[in-house]
Structures are given as structure tokens and as C-alpha cells.
Amino acid sequence: QAQLVQSGSEVKKPGASVKVSCKPSGFTFGGYILNWVRQAPGQGLEWMGWISIQTGIPTYAQAFRGRFVFSLDTSVNTAYLQISSLKAEDTAVYYCQSDKSGPSYFFDFWGQGTLVTVSS
Amino acid sequence: SHELTQPPSLSVSPGQTARITCSGDALPKQYAYWYQQKAGQAPRLVISKDTERPSGIPERFSGFSSGTAATLTISGVQADDEADYYCLSINITSTLRVFGGGTKVTVL
């Protein structure tokens, strides 16, 4: 079954950095784009931005410009989300989501989510 | 700005029809997508491109869009449909996306 597999939960102190990984299982990234989505505790889904698998160029939603970095390592077919200068309000589940759209199809896969807890 | 508005909650009895609306000024030019999220799980796509139902999604889920509003309809609601539902739109030109605030569907 095709899916995205994310790295495990993280607990970090304020000011630290964290790197979340996302790797496809059962399919390859080719032709897809990779989105990152945040869900704070008890809150809704928030689109953070996307990265082109073809070019590696990221696009960030306004609220996520600055401390958030999307990257790819094509040698290991893995995408990454790095958050620097962590704050308590960064505590959330972070999902990677990948989709590919054509005239008669839309393929959509999600990771299981990675809980990042920022606490002193 | 690109915003989508959903009602926060909706209660429905089993067997009845649930209709969830998603409103946004950009919807006449953009497709709406609908996701179901059950507690502790990742979201699951239930409708793409306004009306298309992915493989494996029950026929009781349907979508419609007209003007500035998109609607997800769940016909013959079952207890298993209790979840949060989110709409999403994608701006093809700017590639930016936005989720609606989500609607919590409670099956009475």
C-alpha cells in the first residue's frame, strides 16, 4: 500500500532546531509535489507550503517564511522539514502530503504525522 | 487574501443527510477538495476536483461546487462518518493552497 513514512516524535527545548523526514513507500516521488501541513493541538489543518520534487524549489505560505525550511535528498528519496529557533507555539503534528494531478486523476498520499513538542 | 469558511460543527442523525459548505471568493476559479480526519489519524481524501470520488470512498460521499461555495454531501450518514471535514482549494496560478477551518460532524 502506497504511503508516506515520517520520522518519529520529537521533544525539543525552545530555541533548538528539529528536522522531520518524509519518505515514500510503495511509490516514487516522480511527478508528485510534496506539501507540508501543520496541525496544532485541537486545531485545524494549516498548509505550510510545498516543494517541487523535480526542481527542489520550495514555496512557503506567508506564515511559514523564515524559520521553516523544506528540502530534498534525492539520493535517499527523502523530503525534510527543518524548523529552527523553536517556540512553544510550534508544538504540533506535522504532516507531509504528496499529490499528483492529471486530467482524469488526482493521487493523494499522507504521512502518519510527526508530533513535535516544544517545552522547557 | 485567499480564505475558505466552513461551519464549525454539524450534528446529524444516522441515515440522514449531512451537507457541509465551504465558502470562498476564489472558488469559482479553483477546484475544491474535501478531506475527512478521524481522531488521531491523518486526513483522508474523500472528494477531489469538486465532484470526483477517489477509489475506495463510499458512494454516499458526493461533492458539488457552484459560484463561491462548494458542498460536501454525506447521504445516509453512518456512525463511522463522525469526523472532522476540511475543504482545500489550490490556486493553480500561484500554487498556493488554503484549508477551510474544518467542520466537526457529530452523528447523534
Structure write-up:
The complex is a heterodimer of chains A (120) and B (108). Chain A has 120 residues and is mainly β. Chain A has strands at 3-6, 10-12, 18-25, 33-39, 46-52, 58-60, 68-73, 78-83, 92-102, 105-110, 114-118. In chain A, strands 2, 4, 5, 6, 9, 10 and 11 form a 7-stranded mixed β-sheet that branches. The N and C termini of chain A lie far apart (39 Å). The mean pLDDT of chain A is 95. Chain B is 0% helix and 44% strand. Chain B has no helices and 9 strands. In chain B, a hairpin with a 6-residue loop joins strand 3 (32-37) and strand 4 (44-47). The model of chain B has no long low-confidence stretch (mean pLDDT 95).
Largest sheet of chain B: 6 strands, mixed
Shape verdict of chain A: globular
Helix content of chain B: under 10%
Number of strands of chain B: 9
Query: Roughly how many Å is the radius of gyration of chain A?
Result: 14 Å
The low-pLDDT segments of chain B are: none
Based on secondary structure, the structural category of chain A is: mainly beta
- Give the termini separation of chain A: 39 Å
User: How much of the sequence of chain B is in beta strands?
Assistant: 35-45%
Strand content of chain A is over 45%
